[in-house]
Amino acid sequence: MIPYGLLSVLLLPIQCLGLFFFAKGFFPYKPVFHGYAPIESDSPPAVFDSVIFMLVDALRSDFVFSNESTMTFTQSLIASGNALPFTARAAPPTVTLPRIKGITTGSVPNFLDAVLNIAESDTSSSLQDQDSWLAQFKRRPEPGRLIMFGDDTWLKLFPGMFDRSDGTSSFFVSDFTEVDNNVTRHLDTELASDDWDVMILHYLGVDHIGHKSGPKSPFMPEKLSEMDNIVKNLYNHASKKLEQGKSTLLVLCGDHGMNELGNHGGSSSGETSTALLFASPLFEKLGHSFTAPWLTSDGYDYYAVIEQSDIVPSISGLMGNPFPMNNIGVFIPEFLDFWSEPEQLTLLKKNAEQMYRILSATFSELDTPVKNVDALLEGNDVDKIRGLWHKIHDPYFDDTNDPFTTLYSFLETSRNVLARTSSNYDIPSMIIGLLIISWISWVTLRRSIYATSPDSITKIVFVITVLLHGLSMFGSSLVEEEHYFWYWIASGWFAVQFAMSARNMSRGTALAWIGQLALLAVIRHYHHTGQKFSGAFDLASLLSLKFSNGTLWTLIMIQHLMVFKNLRFYVFTEVGSIAGFVCSFTPIFSLFSFKLSMAIESGETVPSYLAAITPISTGADNLRKRAQAAFLAMGVCLMFHFIATVWNTKKDAFKFIRGVFYIVEVLLLIESCTTNIPLFLLYGAVHSILRRYAAYEKSTSMAIVFTGLIWQHVSFFASGNSNSLASLDLSNAYNGISGFNTILVGILLFVSNWSGPIYFSLSTIVQLAVHQTRSSSKSTFSSIEQLVTTDYLSLIHAFHAVSLLAVMSACTVLRSHLFVWTVFSPKLLYTAAWFSLQQGLVDTIGGLALTAIGEAL
Length: 857
Hints:
Elements (H helix, E strand, L loop, with lengths): L3 H23 L23 E7 L4 H5 L6 H9 L2 E7 L6 H10 L7 H4 L16 H6 L7 E6 L1 H5 L6 E5 L9 H7 L2 H5 L6 E6 L1 H9 L6 H24 L4 E6 L15 H4 E7 L24 E4 L3 H9 L21 H22 L10 H5 L3 H12 L10 H17 L7 H24 L5 H17 L3 H5 L1 H22 L3 H17 L15 H6 L4 H23 L5 H25 L18 H28 L5 H18 L8 H17 L5 H18 L23 H12 L1 H21 L8 H30 L6 H37 L1
Parallel strand pairs: 1-5, 1-6, 2-8, 3-4, 3-5
Antiparallel strand pairs: 2-7, 6-7
């Protein structure tokens, strides 16, 4: 029989293969029209000669329009009628790459673009052969000249499109300043030149500040003032060009917004509400009047709310270019007054004809002859489109009383239908993936029941948990609020164990489960996550208040002292008092120095007395060096611990495993935000209780593992994570890194967001080591490694296999669901990360390596 340790490693690539086949079928690229819309001679004349497209990453609507905004010049343009403001609704996923696709082609990008957005070297998402308002400039009889400065995502999407460019990596979020200065430094030269028709400027500082310290960061007002000054500079340039007889359109917009934590990727109002502004002295003659600024409200709807895709036909129409072939946007009606009424109708009809080409390729029933127009107008959306299209092509349509109402009804209905049209799923590939994962689920679940140590109660509860969790994946609200499932399971499991312990008259064990219930009550309220209560006041919010910073930093210092104590008395116990102190103190001092410097650099309130502990210098370079020092000190400690264990004549696998656990805790603290560091005090208390439980005579390895699995998930959500892409915290993914590196950033991103599960994964192995040491004379297993490869990996693999199968099944069954791209698809990505990184790398490979080395020593 194949040892399960080897079998678990062999199952990983098979499970990856199943996931690959399913993802290949579920995330195909949407079919698009290739080629370019023809240039037509009867199009209404262009209003503008050139365009400056200023995209400020994560520019939420209130950043520009509210009375709390520092963009006062921009607001003065709105108040004077020289600018037309809108709130542009961005479609999920609210990350940069798909949003740039949407605001250049007018199409709804595939959800897979959210993944490709992270892969900086990816070129498969290129728009080189797709129509866009940029490409239409290049296809003019006298080809337009395009320049771009800023986020290098544009260079990936439009290779060879720009005559001049200077790209900046968008992923190094620690930089607030240089990333924007690299754009602005080109402006004086380019504005003095006349050899361009389109200027793209993509500023990243607002987004980076949001990721590091949220929308209320003290750095945000200054950054918005900087953006406002750039708008002023660009508008003054447009005014001077108009005096010279050339009109320039200035467009200011965001690609997405951000939530109250500063993150994005989901579908909350803050993430989807972006500022949009069209500015030019020519707009004054349209006679529009607006109040600016608006009073801040709980919502983000300022002025008229449009879809972000509407930017594309509006720019194309104003510049006299054809509408891109894949555009589903609608020309913004506020701009129609630049033309006569016949020209307005011509423009809207061309918008309708372009959109009908997409509709006819999507819905074959549109070709059915129309018999009763009025009946169709009362039918479903597709029937309504057929009826409206028939009315538009009536020979006397232009003479009717409501041609504009009919055209806009057709355009808006068509846009809504096309925006929610399902992807072209590859069902056979999805079925192959489901069959592979179904087989693995059966193998692992069967083994978890029959091949593990005897503990029927734990096995029954485990199977019930797995099945209930799998069923919950079919409910959108249950996926969004999954943390409640784990809080309930944890409470129920701890209560069951307490009742069993009380019945067996095991006082110490009963107290252990009461202690866990008490700690759970605190931990579950540390962060409010999910959708319903995300951003609500919680313990983390309380500790983040200015008057609470003393309490927060006191807890942080206590946690650092606890780690120092663990290193000193459990890791470096046999190297001498001085050497042990130095080995234990160095990584803790480096860690605390880095965290203190980062807090001050991020604008967090820090007690004044702490500044004297370590010299504080500002700048990203200083933070990088401090983080590198902390990483280096931790690495040296790990290497020293290994060498000391090898040279020690008294080999002790348990002490080696325990030492690695405490050293890795330093890494987890490096990658945790300051407000989450006190959580590790609570985690440490849980670990201490479980370690004592593991030493009790009536404890079972199955109960230890199942409890550890529960705490992995509880800690994940208690840290502020959820099943939304917006909860991914990028703020610590660049610690110690000077530039973007896919592998290093990916590893640090995982460690920072899965710090709790990693902690409890290692904690469970330590507890199993305690359990084996206590019961080695009675246990049917002869080593720690056997406990890990039987009970631990069996339960972990069974749970993740069934969980993955359930999520894949839900995505298949509910592929036409309204929330398939906002709820179920992100959950599939998270489940894939849990399987491949947490289960694959940490639990399986890491757990086996740790115990194998411990046994070998």
